[in-house]
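User: Here's a protein and a ligand (flavin mononucleotide). What would the complex look like?
Assistant: Let me lay out the input and then the predicted complex.
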Amino acid sequence: MRYNQLGKRMIVLTVLAMFAHGAASQSFAEDSASSGTADGKTVRVLVVYHSLSGNTERMANGVADGVKRVAGAVAIVKKIEAVKKEDLEAADGIVLGSPAYFANIAGKMKLAIDDWNWKLKVDFTDKVGGAFATGGGQTGGKEHVVVSLLLFMLNNRMIVAGPLYEDEEGKDIWGELGASAMTGPLDPGVGPHELDAARRLGERVAKIAKKMKSK
Ligand SMILES: Cc1cc2nc3c(=O)[nH]c(=O)nc-3n(C[C@H](O)[C@H](O)[C@H](O)COP(=O)(O)O)c2cc1C
């Protein structure tokens, strides 16, 4: 396929993907109104990510799908540069996702989240948090990125959570630190199990935020 044909096909696929996700709302007020849950009880989860080649964005949309499994919960998905102080303040839960850049949080994301505290002076107390990462390598630092994002949250007085798992009989149960996807040549893109982890993460954060809100 010629490069310009490939480019056109990519644009069409991107637009279709946006519509498949209902072209996520831009604010919680908009989303609550459209879901008919603007009653003060709506659980609002903000999913924030940085992504240049789309992998972390796919995971972010997976997290939002998981949030929507919880009755009364809504998700807003935003790129890091689009997040405003009011988004952060309105959120009951905040899930952050970053690609591993040299085994660490992408610089753009780190600068922004530092400012949330330092410049915007957001009070994150008792908001529920979760984290996810993508990385090209098998041991390229994805888990380190997840833990670093969780440390930011703990340091900012948030409550953090990861996805839950159980075996088919429900006998063996366990939790994980967050969600991640290996995206490099050995396992390109975001696979079904990785997307499942993202959904579980969104669901868990929304469930805990709902419990916190009902108190
Ligand atoms: C500047 C830069 C540094 C990277 N460093 C790492 C790394 O240390 N470990 C790793 O596993 N992948 C690394 N990668 C690969 C990305 O983490 C990976 O492709 C990721 O899925 C990209 O996310 P995106 O598609 O959402 O942009 C790096 C990519 C870039 C652009």
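Summary: Residues 51-57, 99-103, 134-137, 140-141, 183 surround flavin mononucleotide (CB under 6 Å).
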